[in-house]
Structure formats: C-alpha cells, structure tokens
Amino acid sequence: MTNAVVLNNVTHKDLRVIRRHSPALNQTLNITLALPFEFRSLQHEYPLVFIRNDITRTYQAVALLGFEQQENLYLSEHGWDASYIPLMIERQPFLIGMQPTADTSSANPLLLIDMDSPKVSEHEGERLFLPHGGHSDYLQQVTDILATIRERENETQTFYNLLARYELLEPFFLDITLSNQAKHRLTGYYTINEERLSTLPAEAITELHQQGILPLIYYVLASHSNFRSLIDRKQAVIRV
C-alpha cells in the first residue's frame, strides 16, 4: 500500500529522497512496467515480455528482473547493476495524480509522493525544494520524467492497440535448470508471435511502420538474448 499525498513546498519544505537503490529502499519485485518509448534502452539490459490482465483483456510490457516472486537479480546492497534503470523504478517514490476540474471531461495532473516509501527522509538524500521554495534540480528531473510518461500515453496506447488488432502476442514459457539442479519454469507471460508477424499483409506492415511500432517489436525480440544473462545472474546468486 502507498500513502500518496500531493507534494507542496510548504508542508514538505524539508523533505529529501534517498536516490540510491538497495533491497532496504526498493520494493523487491521480479518485474517492472516497461514503457514503449524506453524499449531502445531497456533491450540492452533486460528481457522484455508482456503480462495480461484477464479481466480487461489488455496487455502491458514489463522488464523481467528475476525468475521468482520478489526476486530482483539486478538489485543488491551495492546498488542497481545495470547501465539503464527503468523509468518506473527511477521515478519512485513519486506518482502522477489527477485532479478533477469543473469540466468533468478533463483533469489536471498532480505530483504525488509516497510518504511511506523508505526512500523518503528529512535527514538524508536529495532535497526536493530550494530554500526559497523552488524545485531542486533533482525534483525537476523527476517532474520531467513523469511529464514525459503522461505526454506519451497516447503513443503507448497506440502500441498496445495495434498489437491487439493484429494479434501479435502469444503466451510462452521457459524452462531452466540451474547448476544445483534446481528447475524453474517461467510462465504466465506473453511475447511477440514471430510467425504471425511474418505473415501480416503489406498494408498492416505499412501501418506498423508509419506508427513507429515495428522498431518497438524488434526491440522486444532482441531483448530475449538477455534471458541468458538473467540466468547467469541467477547462477551467481546460488553460488554465493
């Protein structure tokens, strides 16, 4: 659960955020949401797969961080072991909230902070506000990240709409056997159906290209080479 409140420079004038990453400061999960516009960076570090909401029948892309629940093989006491950290991790403990307006068809975005996050402090970390009340450089960086996420929501939705329209996702599983003979089956995820992609009509490929979706699809497929490195990370943990 989160205790999200609207951030302001009066109530929170002394607030700080600890930017480093560690098991004590980060929620330990084996996946994190992956935003399509950051696929180019993510595909160098993480396997990218999809999860499905069985109620809404919608999909979301995630970066896979581990093979078991509450296992993040990129996170240790030494920090986050990757050159690129997913934006949904970097923006913590901040969130976007929406404030209804008199015009019920619209809402104003609000910057929220989770006061229960272990990253929030009054004694350690980056200041959020300057002495005169303005945003610190760090808070401005966070604001820019959240603004980018919101501004590109339509682009993100187009990506998922076209994947659904052309039925480009399929379930998959991965069996691995570790050096200690422990077996793991990765299941419950979806990926790009390459056979389906290869048989799409020319007009569909043209639409995917014009909408900027084809590169995103290829980034997802290229990211699967990171399964090998994720297995290596798992092997390293069991040898310790």
**End-to-end Cα distance:** 32 Å
Oligomeric grouping of the chains = single chain
How much β-strand is present in the residues?
25-35%
How would you write the strand order of the largest sheet? 1-9-8
Overall domain count: 2
Total helical segments:
8
The secondary-structure element order is EEEHEEEEHEEEEHHEEHHHH
Number of strands: 13
Instruction: Write down the overall mean pLDDT.
Output: 92
> What is the percent of helical residues?
25-40%
Structural class comes to alpha+beta
Rg of Cα set? 20 Å
Shape: globular
The profile of the biggest β sheet is:
3 strands, antiparallel
Low-confidence stretches: none
Jot down its keywords:
240 residues; alpha+beta; 2 domains; three-stranded antiparallel sheet
How would you describe this protein?
By secondary structure, the protein is an alpha+beta fold. The protein has 2 domains: 80 residues, no CATH class; 139 residues, no CATH class. The chain has a 3-stranded antiparallel sheet with strand order 1-9-8, with helices on one face. A 3-stranded antiparallel sheet has the order 10-2-11, with no helix packed on it. The chain has a 3-stranded antiparallel sheet with strand order 3-5-4. The longest helix has 15 residues. It is globular, with a radius of gyration of 20 Å. The two termini are 32 Å apart.
